[in-house]
RNA sequence: GUAGAUAUAGCUCAGCUGGUUAGAGCGUCGGAUUGUGAUUCCGAAGGUCGUGGGUUCGAGCCCCAUUAUUUACCCCA
């Protein structure tokens, strides 16, 4: 029997020590930001009941769920009739009988489930963050994995747009934090936070009047504007049942001339531009709504959406937010998840070819699916795996993030090694991560070990040093060697 | 689900029009240096060329199939 070649499922990865250290660096910045804004940690099970997961992400989402086969005789409830596939629905019939659990697909739905199950004990508004892996049975490709981490922060139980404003603040704080290590300006993550409102999108649909195309088709088509261009979107709209007149109308609404009130304050300019665009769109929507129809109404949801976007900007201004140049209003932003109802967010890194590294939005009725209607929530999520790929491409990781051990004690021979164990204890007691090389191999080998592991210092006490009651401490980076007493060693390494 | 690309040493990849014994760099191991890494010099090990068929006097190279990986589309973090 030949040994099998080991492998891991596609779309999954091992994380070696150096990678884990750098991932923890990212997690740390995100976690500290969430906590600074008053979010409390939550963890939920890897497995959820399929009844919790299915139907929350649309038909495509259900397809991407990893289902877990029941334990034991998982075929015991399946009948011969179930397996008849003349109608092509055998899979649908059999699935609930053989699998009742699945891997979580995101962190928001488990959170909603948790909120409903614990509504009696929670204090609202409830702010929680959650950093855990999720699984999607997707086709892996650049920046897309089947197992990846999400870092969610959500608030439920308040409609206040302060939450939306704070999401922008947290997004900036995390990305600014990640840019701290940048050695030059063009090494930084050049990020843009895009914001839109589902009401604005809905208002555009309303502005078309009676149409054969569906609202969802309109949203997903214009979301692709930056990818496939005006003609591409137009074609897709027509394919999906819109008339070319309607398509033209959509582009008329999206067309927003740039404002021109230049001043020396870039932050002020960006803020003005944002507000100007909102005003502009508001006018367009009103003017263009079915002028021939006497019963035409100004779309209520559009008005509400634009008003809320303005409110978010006002809160940010009052807070003293100074990065309006990072915040763009983009009426074409749609985002896939169907449960969003209010503001929606997305972060793109402009100088790295990567999908969005963060996204989120408000959902007015997420807990409704679990029997608790009328609770509003808003939240967002960072994709750590994508952020990692971006930082790596820009070489933005701090040096030494990978090293754990600070000092290696060399091992001369089996007899004297135990005599140095008290020294090892003292190093550790002083809070210096240290290790003794476990075998009495030749020194070259032990030095190579320290070098390969990125250990900065090697401590030596051979017969000569012992006779003098001293130690030799070598700093590998410089090659410098010093003969020191133990106290001096501790002082150097501390 | 749709379309393309790739598969050769532990890793990254060369390999010409199909022609003798399969190549490099890095890494690993040994030595130069029996108390010193990285750097320098010398040496060694390491291959069923993804797998299975076919064409040919002859296949790493051409053809077919298959598997794996990967990129783009759809969708998404």
Automatic annotation (TrEMBL):
Keyword Protein biosynthesis: yes
Domain Aminoacyl-transfer RNA synthetases class-II family profile: 1-422
Annotated localization: Cytoplasm
InterPro entries attached to this UniProt entry: aa-tRNA-synth_II, aa-tRNA-synth_II/BPL/LPL, Anticodon-bd, Anticodon-bd_dom_sf, His-tRNA-ligase, HisRS-like_core, HisRS/HisZ, HisRS_anticodon
GO molecular function list: histidine-tRNA ligase activity
Keyword annotations: Aminoacyl-tRNA synthetase, ATP-binding, Cytoplasm, Ligase, Nucleotide-binding, Protein biosynthesis
Coiled coil regions, renumbered to chain: none
Similarity annotation: Belongs to the class-II aminoacyl-tRNA synthetase family.
HAMAP family for this protein: His_tRNA_synth (MF_00127)
The protein's name in its UniProt record: Histidine--tRNA ligase
